Automatic annotation (TrEMBL):
Pfam families: Glyco_hydro_36N (PF16875), Melibiase (PF02065). The keyword Hydrolase applies. Residues 22-264 form the Glycosyl hydrolase family 36 N-terminal domain. GO terms for molecular function: alpha-galactosidase activity. This is alpha-galactosidase. It catalyses: Hydrolysis of terminal, non-reducing alpha-D-galactose residues in alpha-D-galactosides, including galactose oligosaccharides, galactomannans and galactolipids. The lineage of its organism: Bacteria, Bacillati, Actinomycetota, Actinomycetes, Micrococcales. GO terms for biological process: carbohydrate catabolic process. Keywords: Glycosidase, Hydrolase. The keyword ATP-binding does not apply. It is an enzyme of class 3 (hydrolase).
Length: 751
């Protein structure tokens, strides 16, 4: 396998592994088609570049692990040293290339092609194994494993500085997209032109953070959701990390990612090995939606989440810390009447927890609020027909807690004596971090979680993480977190877990392997949620993305939104409610019940279909939707975020439908009609008034994994019927929505 060539689903990867040097990636991108051995050799030979003036005297090629020893003066793929030895550039040599071993566990998927390369540096006494996998969806995964090959007793560890995955991209991929953000404002896109140098993002939060780059995307200028070539990387890791794009004056462009290690954080002892997190890399010739079209089915191929995803009622924004059985029982009953399926008791249930300044780590049910434990509440929840979930924050500890007083050595950063002169470590949300890498602390947390899950019929844990680490080893803490979640799931195979980190500060493919849901953001404001969900959903399928119907006035922004806008926004994900339904009017409860009925019928479509997003000419107006895999049905939302640029905006164009098939388009009203500012609606829309989608016809949308009707109004009954090509290329005039409004459209194939 001197010239390995892997192909899948319209993408391909070709390496030149001839000779003894580190293999070169000749091509990663569009499928090059069937290539014979002779053609591969010709292409590999033809890919050797010129020798530039004032450069090394052999052709410079970008390898899988570029270093100074190869003439590469950019960011190296590997760095490290042995204490007490003189420094020299790592110089790896190829030992062998072979078809990789079959992946294990959930990634042992049919059709996955694998490749393993073994490299070694005899002088540095290290070896590096590189594993590459390409799935049937065209998703590429890579990781490295470094081994300290020293056999000298007592020899110093190899201090690893960095070990990263680096992938070349063509020069035409000159525009970058990555993300930043804040609490309740995650996934803010930012674009830039890649000039000479490095665009580098580093994250030292002990979690990816609200400002996580999330995806590093390089593409042809002007790429959008539906157009352009794009190359993308994502690090499947929930701790400190870095991601970058580099355009070297030497003539190479690349994407890189890896764990961000502090100096001295990771030493590889003699005979020991360390594996990096997986880098997930995807190519698309159809813009950002093309990335989702690969990533979503790939994630679904190994996902273990149970479907359908239940409608959740979370108590946080309903009662906050004010827990009492009568109120919570009434809330559960109100939720049951609207069709809620899961009741989640949020923060405030454990010993002494009356606010956010105490008791984290004391995971015992509060005997004052709950003298009979949680049994009476759970019995009431079950009697209402709901299952029960519980909020926990196992990685954190309050200094005002019994566990911190008994075991200050378990607190990261330490707890100084009252008389000590040293400055105490910083608190964040009035809390500190429990050192899960301490065996006794790990055992304590596991024992408490195990005890709760054994005593009570808990179906679901909302697992929170409300601060940055700011101390010690993010690597050890993250590895211990993974071990803790794995241990809990092994002991209680039926438990479902939602990952929350002050909202969306820990959404990555490392945590996604271990959980059933992620809390997309701490804001339930639909205006903020529209963009957060839009971009989080490029990577993560909608069935993972928790989205809740909140109160009219958002807790996090103070903005007031109409019920129809809130319902339309929360519909496209793993839907739930975070609102005190006891205070809702009878009319509102009826509208919520209707929304939940629609959601339940649409779940198979929303949670298995293809996510599509139109590229708007006016950023005030966005259109997104989900199309069933068989293209029989779809649900779209036209959203007005602000006042449009033009009095009559551009037409709504619906992507993703089968061009030659005929479709019926029908408005779907939830929570009343969206507010418009118009003297008259478009003629096609006016003709449909009174023929909006019904529950009976929506039931067809749920059949066959999203096949069947998306919700016409019973027969053609005045509905507009056009081909998929016309709907995608010409479109329909939009109702003139007021700002912060959404209009829903169900689309069914006819005949």
């Amino acid at each position: 396998m001197s010239i390995p060539y892997l192909r899948a689903a319209g993408t391909s990867l070709m390496l030149d592994a001839r000779g003894t040097g580190v293999p070169v990636i000749v091509h990663w991108g569009a499928d090059l088609g069937e290539l014979t051995g002779a053609m591969l050799t010709t292409l590999a030979d033809a890919s050797v570049p010129s020798i530039a003036p004032s450069s090394i005297d052999v052709p410079l090629r970008l390898t899988l692990l570029p270093t100074l020893a190869q003439g590469w003066s950019g960011r190296p793929g590997i760095s490290g040293f042995r204490p007490g030895r003189g420094g020299s550039a790592i110089d790896l040599r190829l030992v062998n290339v072979r078809a990789g071993e079959r992946p294990t566990g959930r990634f042992a998927l049919p059709g996955t092609q694998t490749l393993t390369l073994l490299l070694a540096d005899a002088a540095a006494q290290i070896s590096v194994r590189t594993d590459l996998e390409i799935s049937v969806q065209g998703v590429l995964r890579l990781r490295h494993t470094v081994t300290n090959t020293s056999t000298t007793a007592g020899d110093a560890a190899f201090e690893l500085g960095s070990l990263d995955v680096i992938l070349p991209v063509p020069g035409r991929a000159g525009e970058l997209l990555d993300f930043t953000g804040l609490w309740t404002h995650e996934r803010r896109p930012q674009r830039s032109t890649l000039g000479h140098g490095v665009w580098s993002r580093e994250f030292r939060h002990g979690r990816p953070g609200h400002d996580d780059s999330y995806l590093m995307v390089a593409g042809t200028p002007g790429f959008g959701f539906r157009s352009g070539e794009v190359w993308c990387t994502h690090l499947a890791w929930s701790g400190d990390k870095r991601a970058w794009a580099e355009n070297s004056p030497l003539g190479f462009s690349l994407l890189g990612s890896g764990e961000l290690l502090a100096p001295g954080e990771l030493g590889v002892a003699a005979g020991a090995s360390h594996s990096t997190p997986w880098t997930v890399a995807v190519y698309s010739d159809a813009g950002l939606d093309g990335l989702s079209a690969r990533l979503h089915p790939w994630i679904r191929s190994w996902s273990t989440i149970r479907t359908p995803r239940p409608v959740v009622l979370n108590t946080w924004e309903a009662v906050y810390f004010e827990h009492d059985l009568p109120t919570l029982a009434r809330l559960a009953d109100a939720g049951a009447q609207t069709g809620v399926e899961r009741f989640v008791l949020d923060d405030g249930w454990f010993t002494g927890r009356r606010d956010d300044r105490r008791a984290l780590g004391d995971w015992f049910v509060d005997p004052v609020t709950w003298p009979s434990g949680l049994h009476p509440l759970i019995e009431r929840v079950h009697a209402a027909g709901l299952d029960f979930g519980l909020w926990v924050e196992p990685e954190m500890v309050s200094l005002d807690s019994e566990v911190a007083r008994a075991h200050p050595e378990w607190v990261l950063g330490g707890v100084p004596e009252p008389s000590a002169t040293e400055t105490p470590a910083l608190t964040w949300r009035f809390q500190r971090v429990l050192d899960l890498s301490h065996p006794d602390a790990f055992a304590w947390v596991f024992a408490r979680l195990n005890a709760l899950l054994t005593e009570y019929p808990i179906a679901y844990l909302k697992w929170d993480h409300n601060r940055d680490l700011l101390a010690a080893s993010a690597h050890r803490q993250t590895a211990a977190l993974y071990s803790l979640i794995d241990a809990v799931r092994a002991a209680h195979p039926g438990i479902e877990i939602e990952s929350c980190a002050s909202g969306g500060a820990r959404i990555d493919l490392g945590i996604l392997e271990r959980v059933d849901r992620v809390w997309t953001s701490d804001t339930n404001d639909p205006f903020e949620r529209q963009q957060i969900q839009r971009y989080t959903g490029v990577l993560v399928p909608p069935e993972y993305l928790g989205g809740h119907l909140g109160a009219a006035t958002a807790h996090t922004t103070g903005r007031t939104s109409e019920l129809s806008f809130r319902l339309a926004t929360a519909l496209f994900g793993a839907a739930g409610i975070e609102w005190n339904l006891i205070d809702a009017s009878a009319e509102e409860l009826g509208q919520i019940a209707e929304w939940i009925t629609h959601y339940k019928r649409l779940r198979p479509l929303l949670h298995s279909g293809v996510v599509v997003r139109a590229d708007p000419s006016d950023p005030a107006l966005v259109l997104h939707g989900v199309v069933s895999r068989d293209q029989n049905s779809a649900l779209f939302a036209q959203v007005a975020l602000a006042a449009p640029h033009d009095a009559v905006p551009e037409r709504m164009r619906f992507p993703g439908l089968a061009p030659e098939r005929r479709y019926r388009v029908t408005p779907l009203l939830l929570g009343g009609s969206p507010r418009t500012i118009q003297d008259a609606p478009p003629a096609w829309y006016a003709a449909l008034e009174g023929s909006t989608a019904t529950l009976t016809t929506l039931a067809d949308a749920a059949s066959g994994g999203g096949g069947g009707g998306g919700g016409g109004g019973g027969g053609d009954g005045g509905a507009v019927t056009l081909t998929g090509a016309v709907l995608a290329l010409v479109g329909l005039p939009a109702p003139l929505l007021a700002p912060e409004q959404a209009a829903l459209f169900a689309i069914d194939a006819v005949g």
